[in-house]
Write a structure and sequence with these properties.
57% helix, 8 strands
């Protein structure tokens, strides 16, 4: 019987080639390479370039899908980093021929301009992909990326690594950069492993990545649980298989995160290493068999809803889904702990779950908007989580999900301010879109990007400077909600620095999807500072009315 596994040596360019669509499984971890790993790769590439040698970067493990695309089981970090290097080489290049060659390993320009998602060689998970599209893959994007993306986030890591790559490549001459590109295209070798299904891909991944390496947090905890359980050999084997099933649902990092959150729910603390603290926090309160049989499956079910954004509450599922998916846009994950606690403890009451997640969404956005101190934010979430675990009245007027008059004032003030952070800007713009008349929730896999009507950077010769003569006013208002539209990515790329009337032609061209946040621009003839200020106030009023529909204090 054949395994169905196919392995062959090939060039990296054969994997990043026209017609190949690579995407990450839904629960694949986010981009995680550190600066030293990027620098090591760049040094290896430059060394191979100067010596004219081939360079082997290991195996890329792919699962072939029915639609002809591939899921990347192993190789995300390398493929993402190579895409970033190629994008920077493309954007630094002045020769149209080499620029086109570099972009050909990233995407198909014609298909991208038509908004075809399959135009791109690589699609990351729903958290990373919007930033990856806008700041890396889009032509010219690497040199115009945001200066602030959120410290410690995977987007921040991408941005920092792009800076490292730009600095490294900027020290090379144009001919040297072309030599480096030719090395990447012609002399980077991989072993391309294609397996027929996810289980086979995971087996190959495990063989390639676990020998001689430290185990994951969940592996350590699993070993501890099985040792404490005093199970028979058959029982231990059955529980180990169930554990793998949980990992296949959540992913390795997802299971690590879940165990950390369970530890926090039982110890009410996030301090200390998870593997060391989990036995004291959880296994001291229940035996291993009870945890594995009774508790863990329900936690996995609940956390899967959080990761997928797909709740299971029957007729109330849609009412829970919308706020849950708005939460998934936030620039932090602290909301997941109280969400997990609530989903675990309230599995059947869909009406109450819908009410809870509406308030949790408001709470999460408030934390993002004005509780900027990380310790203060953690304390607020901890207070909410304690109230859920202690079955306190969380919907009460004085409960942890409600806000004072001063809180509301601060939330409103922040909404009228600037959003220079990519994640915050996207979260607010997409939430505004859903709040408008005929608005809708935009899911993570949809082709939607935040467009600045007044460009963030206005060229000296631009017509915009006649209407907006003050650079200070441009900076003040360009990143405010009133200046945002939502458009397909290919429209965003083309619109960029065009004047207002030319932008509108693109926004409302035949065949272009028009989002609610963009629709109100249709009948506008001007785009002045007063227009932006007034629109900001109008949009903020609408969102505040959604979040705080009760009568004013």
């Amino acid at each position: 019987m054949e395994s169905g596994i196919r392995a062959r040596e090939c060039r990296l360019s054969a994997i990043l080639s026209p017609g190949t669509a690579l995407r990450m499984p839904p629960y694949q971890r986010s981009y995680a390479w550190q600066a030293d790993e990027v620098l090591e790769l760049l040094d290896d590439l430059w060394r191979s370039t100067k010596r004219g040698k081939y360079h082997f970067i290991g195996a890329i493990v792919l699962v072939e899908m029915d639609d002809g695309g591939f899921l990347v089981v192993d190789g995300q970090q390398r493929l993402t980093t190579f895409s970033m290097i190629l994008a920077m080489l493309r954007d630094l290049e002045t020769d149209p021929h080499y620029k086109a060659l570099a972009h050909a390993m990233i995407g198909d320009p014609d298909r991208a301009n038509r908004g075809d998602a399959a135009a791109w060689r690589l699609t990351l998970n729903h958290i990373d992909n919007p930033y990856f599209r806008e700041a890396v893959q889009t032509e010219g994007a690497t040199l115009e990326r945001d200066g602030e993306t959120g410290q410690g986030s995977n987007h921040g890591r991408m941005s920092q690594n792009l800076e490292i790559i730009e600095t490294y490549l900027g020290k090379l001459t144009a001919p040297e950069r072309r030599e480096l590109f030719e090395t990447i295209r012609d002399r980077i070798m991989v072993v391309r492993v294609v397996v027929p299904d996810w289980d086979g891909g995971y087996d190959v991944f495990r063989v390639l990545n676990t020998r001689g390496k430290a185990p994951n947090t969940h592996d350590i905890i699993k070993t501890e649980i099985l040792q404490r359980g005093d199970f028979s050999v058959d029982e231990a084997g059955a529980y180990a298989r169930q554990w793998l099933d949980h990992e296949s649902v959540l992913g390795a990092n997802g299971l690590d995160d879940l165990l950390n959150y369970i530890r926090q729910l039982h110890s009410r603390s996030s301090k200390g290493k998870v593997a060391a603290e989990f036995p004291k926090a959880v296994l001291s309160k229940m035996d291993a068999r009870t945890f594995l049989d009774t508790h863990l499956p329900d936690y996995v079910r609940a956390y899967s809803m959080i990761l997928r954004g797909e709740p299971d509450y029957g007729d109330h599922s849609d009412a829970v889904r919308a706020p849950l998916n708005h939460l998934r846009l936030l620039d932090h994950h602290l909301w997941r702990v109280p969400a997990l606690a609530y989903l675990y403890q309230n599995r059947d009451d869909g009406e109450a779950a819908a009410a809870f997640f509406r308030l949790l969404e408001r709470f999460g956005y408030a934390m993002m908007l004005y509780v900027t101190n990380s310790d203060a934010r953690r304390k607020q979430y901890a207070r909410l989580t304690r109230a859920i675990l202690d079955n306190k009245p969380i919907f009460h007027r004085n409960g942890p999900l409600n806000f004072s008059r001063d809180d509301k004032r601060r939330i409103r003030e922040r909404l009228t301010g600037r959003f220079v952070n990519f994640m915050q800007r996207r979260a607010v713009a997409l939430r505004l879109n859903a709040a408008l008349e005929n608005g809708e929730q935009i899911t993570s896999d949809q082709d939607a990007s935040v467009e600045h009507v007044l460009p963030r950077t206005v060229p000296n010769e631009s017509h915009w400077n006649k209407i907006w003569p003050s650079a200070a006013v441009q900076r003040e208002l360009a990143e405010t909600a009133g200046n945002f539209a939502i458009v397909p990515r290919h429209v965003n790329r083309v619109a960029d620095r065009l004047e207002f009337r030319e932008k509108k032609k693109l926004y409302f061209a035949e065949g272009v999807r028009v989002f609610a946040l963009t629709e109100d621009l249709r009948d506008r003839e001007t785009w002045t500072p007063d227009d932006v200020r007034a629109r900001t106030e109008q949009l903020v009023d609408i969102l505040m009315a959604v979040w705080f529909p009760e009568a004013p204090d």
